[in-house]
What we know:
Largest sheet: 7 strands, parallel
Distance between the termini: 36 Å
Structural class: alpha/beta
Amino acid sequence: MSNNKLKILIIIDSLGSGGAERSTEVLCDYLYEKDIPFQIIVLDKRNVGVQTRMLQKGYKISFLEKRGFLGEVRLLAQIIKKEKFSLVHSILFRSNLRTRCAKFITNFIHLESLVNTTYSKERKLDKKVNQTALKFFKFCDKVTARKGVDHFHSITETVKTHYINELGLNPEKITVIFRGRKPILSNFADRIELPNKEVNFINVGRHEFQKGQIFLLEAAKILKEEGYSFKIRIYGREGTVTPVLKDFVETRNLGEYVTFEGYSTNIPERLLESDIFIFPSLYEGLGGALIEAQAA
């Protein structure tokens, strides 16, 4: 199919600060470069993340009107039918579920990204996750996946295997395409002064149980007690475990060693200024932060 006939709709939960959102921006940059028409529908607005940058690039982004689940499914079906998209690509669970159900109303080719090991056993350790609700969503996921998706894109073999085992997906309907990032050139080399004694650690990830930052803080406590000189900078938006992380730092007197830097658009520069990248996640699809660290 030639580019002038290909018309893509991307549906995603938000354009926030996660790896899936950043990878969506990379994909859109590629589509724009290749002059392939595309539009983006977003379920939720986000002030922190790639949303502002993508809007500034002039990409056609619209935010889905809030109508409740069934109303949003019908609206998506109407938009897809009216605009006659060649391919609809959904990303993240809420968007996936709505797009699958829209396919029951109108016919279109649905490609879906699998980006995480959603039903990993480690998730059962998260006290903030309602396990009964998780089982219900897994059931909905399993039922709608078989009829509502034409093909799946998995970001790793591990994610592919996970969904085959957990949802019984057909392996022939899943293609693994690894995520990537462009190399981060050392444009900042002339500004970097490596420390003689103090070691600079960096972690990038939102403050959620999945990201395992509490274990990084426990390690920091040990390093402090053993007399090491170091700094740990944690970049990423606040989340459900932010109070726990900050309380740990305060009660263990780690304020001199650990700082929470929040969301940053200058992660490449921060990576190049650091000595060691730390990635303590309990489970991942393939963390975008990890790829960026390798690129640096």
